[in-house]
Amino acid sequence: MFKAAIKTTAYKQPVHTALSALLLLSVVSLASAQDSIANNTAQIVDANSSVDCSDDIQTQAPSYKYQSTQQRVLNCMVEQLQPYQQKDKTAHQQYLAYKAQAWLTYAIHQDSMNNRSAAGVVAAETAESILQSLKNDTAQSIKLQQDIPTTSALMRPDLWATLSALKDSGGIESAPREMAFSEVALIWAATNQCKRGWRESGIHFRMADRWLEQAREAYVNAHDSQTNVALEQSIVSYYKQYAPLDASDDICRGQDLTPNN
To answer: Which segment of the chain is annotated as a signal peptide (predicted)?
Structure first.
C-alpha cells in the first residue's frame, strides 16, 4: 500500500553479499579493519567514562598490537556488549546492545573506507553512550523512539513506519536484534544516499527491509489476529505521519521522530 511513495531507486542495485553482512560482523571481523579510527572520531574513553578497556587491551592477542589504542578500544567495546545480548537480559537491553554493535560496525566501516566524516563520529559516540548506560544500569532511561541524527535523514518512510509501529507494539520483545540492526541500516542508507546517491544506499535499504521483515514475521507469529490488525493500523498511521518528512531532496539534516499518539 506504500509502493507509490517508496523510493524506487533503492532497488536498482544487485545485492553484494559482502556488504550485506556488515551488520553481522564479529569481533574478529572488526579486528581486521585497517588504520586507526582516532583520526575521525572524538576520544571515546575519557576520565568519566565507565568503558575501561585498559586491562583488556593488555591481554589481547598479538594481532591486536598492530592497531591503534583507539581501534583496540572499539574491539574491546564489542566484547563488552556481548553479555547484554544474552537471553538472560531484558529485550530492551538486548536491543540496545545490538544497536551499539551496529553503530560500531558503522564506525569501523567508515574508517576502513578512509571516510573522515561526522557520521563516523556520531556512530562511535552513540555506541559508547549506549554501552555506558548498559554498564551503569541506566539503559531503561533510553527512549525506544530516538531522533535521526543530523548526519542522516528520514528516507523510506514505509520502513520507518514499520519500525516505529513495532516498537510501540512491543515488537522488541520478539526480535531485539533484527529491530536494532534495521534501524541503524536505515540511518546508514540515508547517509550514503545524501553523500553518494542511490548507488551506495540501495544495499543498506534492502538490508533494513530484510531485518524488518524478519522482525515483523516474529511479531505476527507471536500474537493473535486482532493484535496483528492493530499493528497494521499503527503502521498506516505512522506512514501518514512520516511520508511528508521524506527527504526527497536527498539532503541529510536529521529528523525529529515525535512518538505517534
So the answer is: 1-33
Q: How many residues does the chain have?
A: 261
What does 23-79 look like in DSSP terms, one character per residue?
GG--HHHHHT--S-GGGTS--S--TT-S---HHHHHTS-GGGGGS-HHHHHHHHHHH
Last residue of a domain, one of 86, 120, 142: 142
Q: Taking the CB of residue 178, how many other CB atoms lie within 10 A of it?
A: 24
Give the residue numbers spanning the domain of 70.
33-142
160/148 Cα distance (integer angstroms): 11
Tell me the C-alpha distance between 143 and 130, whole Å. Answer: 11
- DSSP secondary structure string for all residues of 157-188: HHHHHHHHHHHHTTGGGT-HHHHHHHHHHHHH
Taking the mean position of all CA atoms in its chain, how far away is CA 89? Answer: 19
Q: How many CB atoms lie within 10 A of CB 5?
A: 15
- Least confident range of 57-66, 97-106, 187-196, 243-252: 57-66
Query: pLDDT tens for residues 41-94?
Result: 334 444 345 566 655 545 555 444 445 566 677 778 889 999 999 999 999 999
Residue 27 inside a domain? The answer is no
Number of separate domains in the chain = 2
Domain boundary among 113, 142, 171: 142
CA atoms within 13 A on the CB side of 65: 5
